[in-house]
């Protein structure tokens, strides 16, 4: 029992720093475990993150692990070009963190791929005053167009965010 992160965001629009980092850490743990067992989600989005009443966080719907599908706002640039690796899930989790903190998606479309390649997103600090120092540099790395310039594991992404606190 519980609700999806999508529903929580619909109710609240955005979450505070502590709640966002808590959810990020739990979702990152699940993704890290999946990646260690050679599973790539490919369609990570708030609707696939379940928040239990007991404060558990579960990543759901691994039904797409064998198909290269996804929702454009959450897809890494390389995924839109058919390349699949754990980096695409880490990218999607970065988009979700941005959305939790700001109440907005970093890339709004319609040409998602061009926006992602150019890094055309508003600095999170300009949308929400009071976020930790370094948040914009964090998202510049987390949403970098080139996978090699991003956090290399879901655990590293969560650790990077927690270090800003």
Detailed description of the structure:
The chain has a 3-stranded antiparallel β-sheet. It starts with a strand and ends with a helix. The chain has 8 helices and 3 strands, in the order E-H-H-E-E-H-H-H-H-H-H. Strand 2 (about 50) and strand 3 form a beta hairpin. Helix content is about 45%, strand content about 5%. It has about 160 residues and is mainly alpha-helical. Helix 2 (about 15-35) packs antiparallel against helix 4 and helix 2 packs antiparallel against helix 8 (about 155-160).
Give me the number of helical elements.
8
Strand order of the largest sheet: 1-2-3
- Taken as a percent bin, the fraction of beta residues is 5-15%
Number of strands: 3
End-to-end span in angstroms?
Answer: 30 Å
Key features?
single chain, 165 residues, 3-stranded antiparallel sheet, 8 helices, 3 strands
Layout of strands and helices, then pairs:
Elements: E1 2-4, H1 5-12, H2 17-36, E2 49-52, E3 57-59, H3 77-80, H4 86-102, H5 112-118, H6 124-127, H7 135-142, H8 154-162
Antiparallel strand pairs: 1-2, 2-3
